[in-house]
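Customer escalation, tier 2.

The customer says the design service returned an amino acid string that "doesn't look like it belongs to this structure." They asked us to rerun it and document both sides in this ticket. The original structure tokens are below, unchanged.
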């Protein structure tokens, strides 16, 4: 029987250490039927979609996406200071599967989802693996915690210079961000919790480098992640 994956947005909390222009908004108990979401995920055909993501993904169905964006649009406009109206959304079931030793260079560093501060990201955690949520970082050399198109050339030059001089971090998931970054905040990533943030914040998934990374949606680090664009963007 198909779960409707209804969402509840009551009790949203702006997490500590975020700022008025860079809110990190947490919602606990966001899905009415998280077990149903996991069962639906187990029916999907997962595949590697982009080289940046260290795992596999399957798209969230269009009916659920349409239902969610109707519920989420007022919430996103309120918390991220955008005009009222209908947002757009892309969303996937995602499972981190790449072994630490096989990570590409780009996957060993904090990243941004783009330089447009109006794009908002969501991570909805559907696992009980012992892996964590999402961590946020500051680049030590430039002091940047978020990247705009104007910031990107300066950040890129500084980071490339550091790597040329000192080398890449070891092949492992980001922990404290050393030596080039420092961690400023981490969202817990509790089961059935969602966190929303601007996609231009430097961030990384909190992955235990010593723990298993199962590709099975029932036992792996399953999330639903989404990107939202505001009205008229």
């Amino acid at each position: 029987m198909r779960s409707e994956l209804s969402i509840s947005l009551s009790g949203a909390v702006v997490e500590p250490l975020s700022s008025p222009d860079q809110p990190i908004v947490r919602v606990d108990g966001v899905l009415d039927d998280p077990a149903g979401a996991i069962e639906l995920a187990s029916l999907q055909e997962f595949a590697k979609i982009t080289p940046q993501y260290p795992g596999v993904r399957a798209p969230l169905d269009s009916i659920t996406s349409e239902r969610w964006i109707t519920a989420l649009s007022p919430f996103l406009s309120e918390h991220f200071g955008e005009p009222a109206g209908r947002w757009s959304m892309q969303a996937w079931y995602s499972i981190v599967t790449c072994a630490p030793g096989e990570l590409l260079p780009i996957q060993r560093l904090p990243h941004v989802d783009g330089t447009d501060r109006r794009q908002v990201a969501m991570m909805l955690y559907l696992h009980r693996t012992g892996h964590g949520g999402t961590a946020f970082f500051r680049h030590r050399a430039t002091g940047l915690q978020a990247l705009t198109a104007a910031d990107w050339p300066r950040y890129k030059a500084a980071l490339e210079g550091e790597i040329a001089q000192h080398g890449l971090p070891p092949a492992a998931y980001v922990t404290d961000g050393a030596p080039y970054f420092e961690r400023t905040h981490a969202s817990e990533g509790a089961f059935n919790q969602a966190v929303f943030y601007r996609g231009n914040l430097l961030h990384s998934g909190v992955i235990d480098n010593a723990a298993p990374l199962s590709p099975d949606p029932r036992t792996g680090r399953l999330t639903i992640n989404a990107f939202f664009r505001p009205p008229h963007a």
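Tier 2 assessment: The sequence is consistent with the input. The radius of gyration is 17 Å. The chain is about 20% helix and 25% strand. Sent an explanation to the customer and offered a walkthrough call.
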